[in-house]
Design brief:
Blueprint (H helix, E strand, L loop, with lengths): L1 E2 L5 E2 L1 E5 L3 H12 L3 E5 L3 H9 L3 E2 L3 H7 L2 E4 L4 H9 L13 E4 L5 H13 L3 E4 L12 E6 L2 H11 L3 E8 L3 H30 L3 H9 L8 H12 L8 H17 L5 H15 L11 H7 L3
Parallel strand pairs: 3-4, 3-6, 4-5, 6-7, 7-8, 9-10
Antiparallel strand pairs: 1-2
Helix pairs in contact: 4-5, 7-9, 7-10, 7-11, 8-9, 10-11
């Protein structure tokens, strides 16, 4: 149990979603002496979480009934709506004073809808998506939307896996920042794939081109370029982040932008490439596998 007289006492943290991100979040919470109760529809995920010290339950409502703070780590908007506001969802058992913090990548419109339902039950709601890869846990940054005073209450929990929490505005603002980031991610991924495919088509070694640029200190070099480029050179398409997930995130970002009247030209073209890769059965591969689409276009 974490005790801080200036914030609150948190006895039990609920965690819904024990997949790749959820499991490592749970691990950090347990390491920091929090009592954690977890739920996932996957029996395998529940067993894996139990092995690291999480008390698992087969009933989602148990999480809502017992937890002081509930964290969500879910695939997308539909899952968030069902988990929070469904017939047997969290809100069916939650009460005044409890807090839900959604770490998932969803759109701000879903968050506002769900947050309103939570408010009707006097349950507080924050959107706090993660900026960072699973391996960089502890160095993650989270843009947080919602009331600042609620964020202050949750800091002891969130600081176990985030190095920085940035209050960016009202409900949904955290999701907005995350989706803007994902639009950038998708574009950097696509141009990295494109330039290495062009190099190969011209007759240059992609490895030589990648090593030259990545070690140059040029302004064009980013961490994502280095990560994706290395996987392309090694032809290693085991997913750190899958094309399917990127397609989902980029699509949410595009739809968000359109609803505000800001048509995203570059992101929309990139999304076409992501969707082609999905159609060709590459959805479960790393985003670097987008090069397979280029290689077919270029008849390589």
């Amino acid at each position: 149990m974490y005790s801080n007289n200036n914030i609150i006492k948190i006895k039990l943290v609920g965690l819904v979603g024990l997949g790749t991100m959820g499991k490592i979040i749970a691990s950090r919470l347990v390491e920091n002496k929090f009592e954690v109760i977890g739920y996932d529809i996957s029996l395998e995920a529940r067993r894996a979480a139990e092995d690291i010290g999480v008390k698992v339950t087969e009933r989602l409502a148990d999480i809502g009934e017992r937890s002081d703070v509930v964290l969500l780590s879910l695939p997308g908007p539909q899952e968030v709506r069902e988990v929070v506001g469904g017939e047997n969802g969290l809100l069916s058992k939650m009460h005044s004073g409890q807090i839900i913090v959604d770490l998932s990548t969803v759109d701000p419109f879903t968050t506002n809808e769900v947050a309103r339902k939570a408010k009707e039950k006097e349950v507080e709601y924050l959107d706090a998506p993660i900026l960072g890869r699973p391996v960089s846990i502890g160095r993650w940054v989270s843009p947080v939307g919602g009331e600042r005073k609620i964020l202050e209450k949750c800091k002891p929990v969130l600081k176990t896996f985030c190095s920085k929490l940035v209050h960016v505005g009202p409900s949904g603002a955290g999701n907005t920042v995350k989706l803007i980031n994902q639009l950038m991610f998708s574009t950097i991924n696509a141009i990295t794939v494109e330039v290495l495919a062009i190099a190969k088509k011209i007759g240059l070694s992609p490895e030589v081109v990648f090593n030259t640029i990545s070690q140059s200190g040029a302004a064009t070099v980013s961490g994502l370029f280095c990560e994706v480029g290395k996987k392309i050179v090694k032809e290693d398409f085991e997913p750190i982040f899958s094309i399917e997930l990127l397609c989902k995130d980029n699509g949410l970002g595009i739809e968000m932008a359109k609803k505000y009247g800001a048509f995203p030209l570059i992101s929309s073209y990139v999304q076409m490439l992501n969707e082609i890769a999905n159609i060709k059965g590459l959805g479960n591969k790393d985003t670097a596998a987008l090069i397979k689409v280029y290689e077919e276009f270029m008849n390589m």
